[in-house]
Specification:
Blueprint (H helix, E strand, L loop, with lengths): L1 H30 L3 E2 L11 H4 L3 E8 L5 E7 L2 E11 L5 E9 L17 E10 L4 E2 L2 E2 L12 H7 L5 E8 L22 H32 L4
Parallel strand pairs: 1-2, 5-9
Antiparallel strand pairs: 2-4, 2-6, 3-4, 4-5, 6-9, 7-8
């Protein structure tokens, strides 16, 4: 049992260094100069380990009439992410999370200044699809109720072909009229591995201590009564 506890502690130490390396790599991506978002011939090579939270830019024309509202809880309170398809010159589509709107501004007519036509260049963070839905709530495409930014499902519901397998969280550049509000991406990596490692090592030490105490007690008993 002691060996098992020590092995678990060592495993958590390894996980700790892996997590620290991940945090460092993601931080470097977020603060790097933006690069062109992956083109269609690069989509198959996109991975979470290499591309999630990469600082990117993309140019195209928004299809505001095809926007999707995804329920969100942010530092500004509950509301919706405004996810809008952006069509590039090559005909491919990238979903852009343009930012947050409160419930009373979910109607595009209430924020028409932010839906101006024309070409736009968006800078933000590359994010991977969130399939299925949110916690205990599944996306309902027929009912147009969305709880996660499921790229494939949203693209299918909006009849979009050749859609990138990722979406982009727009940065905090202000939109006309002030909505949607971008730049609200939360990058949080829970890192409790050191606590877990210390717990396993402490349990191993306690078990070893108990075994030593039992051994000493048995040795002392045998010394007093050799025939015991």
């Amino acid at each position: 049992m002691t060996v098992v506890l020590l092995a678990l502690g060592i495993w958590q130490v390894q996980r700790l260094f892996w997590k620290l390396d991940l945090i460092e790599r993601v931080d470097a991506r977020v603060h790097a100069a933006p690069v062109e978002a992956p083109q269609a011939d690069q989509w198959s090579a996109i991975t979470a380990g290499n591309d999630e939270y990469r600082h990117v830019r993309v140019t195209g024309t928004f299809r505001h009439a095809a926007e999707t509202l995804v329920q969100a809880t942010t530092e500004r309170g509950p509301g919706f992410w405004v996810v809008t398809p952006l069509v590039r010159d090559d005909g491919t589509t990238v979903l852009v999370n343009r930012g947050f709107v409160p419930p009373d501004r979910r109607d595009p007519a209430s924020r028409s200044a932010g839906t101006a036509p024309g070409e736009a260049t968006i800078v933000g963070l590359l994010r991977l699809s969130e399939p299925g839905g949110g916690f205990l709530r599944k996306n309902d495409p027929p009912g147009n109720r969305w709880y996660s930014r499921d790229v494939a499902a949203i693209a299918a519901a909006r009849g979009q072909d050749r859609t990138a397998p990722y979406f982009i969280d727009a940065d905090g550049t202000a939109n006309p009229g002030g909505l949607p509000v971008g730049g609200l991406t939360r990058i949080v990596f829970p890192n409790n591995h050191l606590v877990y490692a210390l717990t396993w090592f402490a349990l191993a030490a306690m078990l070893m201590g108990a075994m030593v105490m039992i051994g000493r007690r048995e040795w002392a008993r045998a010394a007093v009564d050799p025939e015991a």
